[in-house]
Specification:
This protein is α/β, with parallel strands linked by helices. Helix content is 33%, strand content 27%. The longest helix has 18 residues, at 180-197. Residues 116-120 have low confidence and may be disordered. It binds adenosine-5'-triphosphate and magnesium ion.
Amino acid sequence: MLLNIVDVSKTYRSSVAGGIGIKILDGLSMELESGATVAVTAPSGTGKSTLLNLVGGIDRPDSGSIIFKGKDIAKFTDDELAAYRNRHVGFVFQEHHLLPQCTAIENVLLPTLPAVSGGSESGVLDRAMFLLERVGLADRTAHFPGQLSGGERQRVALARGLINSPALLLADEPTGSLDRANAEKLADLMMEINSSTGTAIIIATHSEALASKASRHLLLADGNLRGCRA
Ligand SMILES: Nc1ncnc2c1ncn2[C@@H]1O[C@H](COP(=O)(O)OP(=O)(O)OP(=O)(O)O)[C@@H](O)[C@H]1O
Ligand SMILES: [Mg+2]
C-alpha cells in the first residue's frame, strides 16, 4: 500500500468567530495503492484542498494518521518530512503557483534545487526538458509565466510536479482554470503519465469529466469520503 489515511480529522478554528471550530474532515480514511488514480469531488469549501495539504505534509491533522509506504508522516524527522514533500510527493496546486520571474524550465527545475546544491543529482535539466516536451511545451521553455496561456501554465505546473519522479502526485483542481478542451487534454496527459510512470495520483476536482478518468471516484461529504465509483 502506497498511502493509508486512517481516521483523519481536521477542525479549523476561527479567531474572529470567538474560536468556534468548524470540523472539515471527520474521521476520514482512504487507501491508495501504488500506481492507482483516485478522484475526490465535492462542492467548494468542503475540504478537498485541506485533505491534499494533509497528505502532502503541508498541514497536520488534529487526529488520525497518514501512512506513506508504511511510515506515519507525523513521525518523520524534519529531514524526512522535507524529503517527503520535495521528492516523494509532487504537487499541482489549485492556482499554478509558478514563480513569475522564472522561465518555464526554471519553474520546472525548482523542486530539484536542494538536490542540485547538494551535488547529488545530475541530468535534471534533461528531465525538465523531457517533461516540458511531454506536456507539449518544448518550444516554450524560455517563456515566463506571464507569456504563457492559462493551460500552458498548468502544464508547466504539472511538469514541475513530476520533476522528482514522485510516487504520488497530488493534483488540486488542476484543470480549474482551463476551458473544456484544454482541461480534457491535461486530464488525458495526467492519465498517460500515470500509466507510463506508475505515479499514483489523487485529483481533487469539481469536474465530473476529470473525475471520470480516474480509476476510482470518491465523494467528500460531511467530512468523510464515500465511494461513487470504486
Ligand atoms: N487555514 C484555514 N483556516 C480556517 N479555515 C480554513 C483554512 N483553510 C481552509 N479553511 C476552511 O475550510 C473549508 C474547506 O476548505 P478547502 O480549501 O479544503 O475546500 P475545498 O473543498 O478545497 O474548496 P474549493 O473547491 O473551493 O477549492 C472552507 O470552509 C475553508 O474556509
Ligand atoms: Mg480547494
